[in-house]
From TrEMBL, chains A, B:
<dbReference type="InterPro" id="IPR004304">
    <property type="entry name" value="FmdA_AmdA"/>
</dbReference>
<protein>
    <submittedName>
        <fullName>Acetamidase</fullName>
    </submittedName>
</protein>
<dbReference type="GO" id="GO:0016811">
    <property type="term" value="F:hydrolase activity, acting on carbon-nitrogen (but not peptide) bonds, in linear amides"/>
</dbReference>
<dbReference type="Pfam" id="PF03069">
    <property type="entry name" value="FmdA_AmdA"/>
</dbReference>
Amino acid sequence: MKKIAKDQVIYAMSSENKPVLKAHSGDRICFETRDCYGDEITPQDPDRRPLQINPATGPVFVEEAQVGDTLKVTIEKITLQDQALVGSYPKSGMMADWIERRMIHFLPVQENQLEFQKDLVVKTAPMIGVIGVAPEAESVACRKPGVHGGNMDCRKIREGSVVYLPVFHPGALLALGDVHAAMGDGEVMGSGAEIAANVTVQIEVIKETCGEPWVVDRDRVYVITSAETMEEALKQGCYKMNQRLQKQLGLSPEMAGMLMSLEGNSEICQVVNPFVTLRFGMPLVRFLSKEGKRS
Amino acid sequence: MKKIAKDQVIYAMSSENKPVLKAHSGDRICFETRDCYGDEITPQDPDRRPLQINPATGPVFVEEAQVGDTLKVTIEKITLQDQALVGSYPKSGMMADWIERRMIHFLPVQENQLEFQKDLVVKTAPMIGVIGVAPEAESVACRKPGVHGGNMDCRKIREGSVVYLPVFHPGALLALGDVHAAMGDGEVMGSGAEIAANVTVQIEVIKETCGEPWVVDRDRVYVITSAETMEEALKQGCYKMNQRLQKQLGLSPEMAGMLMSLEGNSEICQVVNPFVTLRFGMPLVRFLSKEGKRS
């Protein structure tokens, strides 16, 4: 299996980034990732303020990936390091109006648990915060989300999930990082359990077009959208899902919309990055063929 | 068991509503409810436009309920009638920009399934759309949500859940209705599977104050907040949850906020009523005593 070491990081996704690995459709790759602070904040130096945040390991050049294709990334394994950290930042996140104190709180990881404090543990639920390809136009900082992926902070991007990303440049230039050992939907204080990790994925090139990130887990198909407001992100997600259901099930826009109203879930990924990210999820069964295969 | 027939409905929650039943803390009551159109839209008359929507059956005067108390409502049973309907409305909901056709689609209910169309069934997941008490100040239409409850369209208000509502007037004046046989989070097209139902609840008066609706299900404790925007509703919910966690666990605002960021979920109830409604949920275990009891 190919491996990329954690000294190979980028802080912006761009078509001008030099690939650090060349791979083929079907390959499995292990990404060594740093935490969102580049592993710079430690118990010995908790007050350190990194100049840049959200490094992503990569990018990988995928030989078969052409403009207009879709890159399918199957998340096979996320192996966490043994310590995470979570932060409280003045004037940021959903509690900005009344949180004034900066704190960095270290969380030892043991047996699938994070020790938040004595007698209070949080279960680990590893997920990938940043995953994306080179964006269509100018470079985008890894701390931002967009149609190319990026800092979506989506809890559904976890072991066993499949992420679909649009290819805007030859080779796609996949990079990922910013793993969280745990994070609630919304990441309301602006921080998950930030941690370094090893992430093993399988990549495949699909000769179809997807216009934005989609995620499939055991139960649902999600379209992921980012915008300035939650309302706008949700509207975009509803539009994309409606279009897809029309095509998949042969429904009118009205009938597809009613089905979405009945069994589609509007869900929040994060509300603390430069754009907010929502996902709209429909049951996976709506996208399976009669033989139960994913179509 | 006491029962209220479906001809006893109100279209606004108000301290001036005449009680249709007097009950005691501990009583069980069955509410016969109409669908959100007052049962007026039928396959024989699908084009009918009711003058008022979202009737709630009641109100009940609870003898022990005093201003400042909390009314605890345990949802024991929701029994659906045999036909639901779902609507597509021009220029409404998250798909307003491109849905132009009004449609009313009838959904026969059979064996816990809704027949959406041939070969496409939706599982039933009954929930209560409207549940509330008389608001503190002027009357509020049942189609609106607020701190008194009302049209919150929260999918977690279902069999087995417990709803906590603030008491603003002697007797509380509980009313409920607008049951959905199924609905996705967000109710993105403005309609669930609207249906008449019988709802059995147990009511209890708690001599403590809750400032807004809270819901407890098997896994989580949710605070429910409504506002003009999703961001504002979520901010309010985060504030309330933060306050409660500080008290419950003896945490600072920062530590409570970090715990929320790690394991609190920002969730969407509905985005289609005059105010949108969100819920913020934390694991129930955070609110249990060491003996496992709810505190």
